[in-house]
Amino acid sequence: MTALRPVVLATGGTGGHVFPAEALASELESRGVPFTLVTDSRGRQWQGALSRRPIHYIHSASPTGSIARRLLALFSLARGLFDAWRALGRISPSAVVGFGGYASVPTMIAARLRRTPAMLHEQNAVLGKANRLVLGGVARVAVSFAHTRHLPDGDNRARLVGNPVREPVRALRGSAYRAPGPERVVDILVFGGSQGAASFSQVIPEAILSLPASLRARVRLVQQCRPEDIERVRKLYAQGRIVADLAPFFADLPQRLASAHLVIGRSGASTVAELAAIGRPSILVPYPHAADDHQTANARAFEAAGACIVIPHADFIPATLAAHLQALFEAPQRLDDMARAAHAAGRPDAAARLADVVTDLISPTFTPSGVAA
């Protein structure tokens, strides 16, 4: 087989854009497909397959905020385009794959200017602004949801692949779920990232403390909290004799997810994909300020599959949450049903499907198995 030129992965910013790139990198590596990374300065922290190949850094910024900040961001993006143009000239890639976020925009524009085959991966149920900006220059759009807002129905470039998850999550795909029986402990995992921890630390303790004593005694919590909230939340749970493990960050989050009977969280793309990969029931509270309200779209799609309960942020008050918790504790079969629905919604082969689209883009004669026809 003729030696392949590397595939460029254009990503950066938050984990939601990075995790699928990392999963694709591992899959390409296993197939012997060379790749390299073009990203912004935030990519210096990455581990795994992404860190084992050359990394090219470019300038990047998000054009939001004040007029001055937007002008500075546009200047930074222009510098990033120059950086990306030079990087692609040195790399001479066979294709470029963009994962959304403004960190990918300069590279995707440079790919179009250089007439390099390019494609996008969209993690959310709404095509993001950055991906919409470069949509006209790509040959394929790999999507994670059957219906993706802002992508025209019938667009023949679309390929449904799912949202790849990290290997530690994928390894837990077969973890059995058993709903808690009557009088048994209910393990609840709460995580919301920096965008969720503040309101969760206010509402969730009040909701749990308002449960009937017989139900409250069954609760065992693992909850992500901001450092400044931990002591206050710990005292609240101690008053109700609730066993709670509180921390700003859990390095073993996949294992905690697999051990949970119920998850309370936001509905970012990675959260939904990981819940589906492991198959755990959830109560999702979409972050109301997410771009294009994409978290609500993600949550509603998951809810339509029967996998979760959605509480809009405006309705996320102790009484509402407590009512849902009590109903689930008293009818654990519903937890079982949601767990099965979440598992059925998962796409454990998403990384392989995405890699198939990439290899098809590289060459019509390059088969999905990675062997030339």
UniProtKB/TrEMBL annotation:
Gene3D superfamilies noted in UniProt: Glycogen Phosphorylase B
Native source species: Enhydrobacter aerosaccus
CDD domains assigned to the protein according to its UniProt record, in alphabetical order: GT28_MurG
Domain Glycosyl transferase family 28 C-terminal: 188-353
Keywords: Cell cycle, Cell division, Cell membrane, Cell shape, Cell wall biogenesis/degradation, Glycosyltransferase, Membrane, Peptidoglycan synthesis, Transferase
Binding site for UDP-N-acetyl-alpha-D-glucosamine: 14-16, 124, 166, 194, 295
Pathway: Cell wall biogenesis; peptidoglycan biosynthesis
Residue ranges annotated for the Glycosyltransferase family 28 N-terminal domain, each copy included: 7-141
Signal peptide annotation: none
Pfam family, one: Glyco_tran_28_C
UniProt family annotation: Belongs to the glycosyltransferase 28 family. MurG subfamily.
GO biological process: carbohydrate metabolic process; cell division; cell wall organization; peptidoglycan biosynthetic process; regulation of cell shape
Alphabetical list of HAMAP family matching this protein: MurG
Catalytic activity reported: di-trans,octa-cis-undecaprenyl diphospho-N-acetyl-alpha-D-muramoyl-L-alanyl-D-glutamyl-meso-2,6-diaminopimeloyl-D-alanyl-D-alanine + UDP-N-acetyl-alpha-D-glucosamine = di-trans,octa-cis-undecaprenyl diphospho-[N-acetyl-alpha-D-glucosaminyl-(1->4)]-N-acetyl-alpha-D-muramoyl-L-alanyl-D-glutamyl-meso-2,6-diaminopimeloyl-D-alanyl-D-alanine + UDP + H(+)
Membrane topology recorded in Swiss-Prot or TrEMBL: Peripheral membrane protein
Function: Cell wall formation. Catalyzes the transfer of a GlcNAc subunit on undecaprenyl-pyrophosphoryl-MurNAc-pentapeptide (lipid intermediate I) to form undecaprenyl-pyrophosphoryl-MurNAc-(pentapeptide)GlcNAc (lipid intermediate II).
Compartmental location: Cell membrane
Record flagged with keyword Cell cycle: yes
EC numbers, comma separated: 2.4.1.227
Gene designation: murG
GO cellular component: plasma membrane
Protein name: UDP-N-acetylglucosamine--N-acetylmuramyl-(pentapeptide) pyrophosphoryl-undecaprenol N-acetylglucosamine transferase
GO molecular function, one term: undecaprenyldiphospho-muramoylpentapeptide beta-N-acetylglucosaminyltransferase activity
